[in-house]
Amino acid sequence: MANLKVPKAPTIRRMPTYLQKLVELHAEGVPFVSTTVLANYMNLESIVVRKDLEITGISGQPGVGYKTDELIAAIRKFLGWNNVFEACLVGAGSLGSALLGYEGFEGYGLRISLVFDSDHRKIGTTIHGRIIHDIKRITELLKPCAMRLGMICVPSAYAQPAADLLVANGIKAIWNFANVSLQVPDDVAVQREVIAGGFALLSVKIAQLEAAKKNGEVRNVG
Amino acid sequence: MANLKVPKAPTIRRMPTYLQKLVELHAEGVPFVSTTVLANYMNLESIVVRKDLEITGISGQPGVGYKTDELIAAIRKFLGWNNVFEACLVGAGSLGSALLGYEGFEGYGLRISLVFDSDHRKIGTTIHGRIIHDIKRITELLKPCAMRLGMICVPSAYAQPAADLLVANGIKAIWNFANVSLQVPDDVAVQREVIAGGFALLSVKIAQLEAAKKNGEVRNVG
DNA sequence: TAGATTGTTAATCGATTAACAATC
DNA sequence: TAGATTGTTAATCGATTAACAATC
């Protein structure tokens, strides 16, 4: 069961958002960025950002901020996104296709270079520039690449078999978009994306706001 | 800035996963479920599940567990998912289409009943059973519904204008899938889905496992 | 010099984990 | 009765927040 517990998970989750904003600011030619700016953007307190950035080992200039380019490099290095992660994707349905179409991944060092499906109507066709391969050819195609990362976008019922197949072919990390919890060996990392989790939070937020309104509280609840 | 801070966020995020498993077990005719079973499924300790369920106010039977149907009802009620949430979606691109095709939402009480886009090639067509409407008709179509929830799936650059439009038309909660942080009034709830956050965590997990392997540690790191 | 910001230490808060009696 | 599990209280751990001197 490799749902590894990672220290500083909240900090790590915020990193890509810092990175995305920093890249934008860098493109605009902004040479320095302060935690105040990043905090405002993300509706956080600046101390949160300061503590978060600490983890990357970077140091800034008091009164000024951090060098934008250095900060970008530090975050990328911390996340291991300075080298390209080659990944394969299993399940070229609507979600899989959407992920294939997301250009943002390149900026995170993620390149989906192999795509598998079992649907014969899809096999051989091209989606967002990638050929869909027959899942039966996974060993033949995957082994030579020494690929470590696999993304699962198949229907829930096929997710565990897909995971087994990936593991059997040397994959060491699985990004799971299927709506089930996967069982994998201890030396394989799994990250499950539960988008309903976000909706659950939003539902509770809505209830909170409505309760606050009922009580005539207009002030910020958070 | 309505990125409300919700108490017990980790617990709330786990709720949909419990719910999904419970519904499955219920369909299989399992009358009682213990926290041990749920914990095993999710690779958690049972005490975590026990504490989580506490929040719903349900009580179980020592030595036996919780009545599956009661637990399902309690979680749904806690999340406000016993009534259907009508939602609209802006941006019928690949991600928007994928979300429209996700049947799981109905089980969470979420029904996407209105879809908008600005692309004239899409307007008037049907995706997964929903007609794509011209975003210009948003006021006309949204106002009569008294809809509270809006989903944003447009490219980053159009996300803030889309949010403004939703807010201007009475939307009180925004589920943001665009890769930017939105600014909204205090009485509007926002939930941003940052899928790169999951990838960041996975990247760190991979690094952790590789470091552990290097040190010859085969035991479970978590 | 004044204002802004970093870096660091300490305080607070909340989530997770442990322990165990009570119950089926 | 024995085994499993709940419910509750206390202990631990870690994340967030506060405070402030040092620096540009």
Short description:
The structure is a homodimer of 222-residue chains. Chain A is of the alpha/beta class.
Structure class of chain A: alpha/beta
In whole angstroms, the N-to-C terminal distance of chain A is 36 Å
Low-confidence stretches of chain A: 218-222
List how many beta strands of chain A DSSP finds: 9
Report the CATH topology name of the largest domain in chain A: Rossmann fold
CATH class of the largest domain in chain A: Alpha Beta
Strand content of chain A: 15-25%
The main pleated sheet of chain A reads as: 7 strands, mixed
Identify the strand order in the major beta sheet of chain A. 5-6-4-3-7-8-9
Mean pLDDT of chain A: 94
Order of SSEs of chain A: HEHHEHEHHEEEHEHEEH
Oligomeric state of the chains in view: homodimer
Question: CATH superfamily of the largest domain in chain A, please?
Answer: NAD(P)-binding Rossmann-like Domain
CATH-scheme architecture of the largest domain in chain A: 3-Layer(aba) Sandwich
Largest interface: A-B, 69 and 69 residues
Overall 3D shape of chain A: globular
- Rg estimate of chain A, integer Å: 21 Å
Q: Helix fraction of chain A? A: 40-55%
| Overall domain count of chain A | 2
Q: With helices defined by DSSP (H or I, 4 residues minimum), what is the helix count of chain A?
A: 9
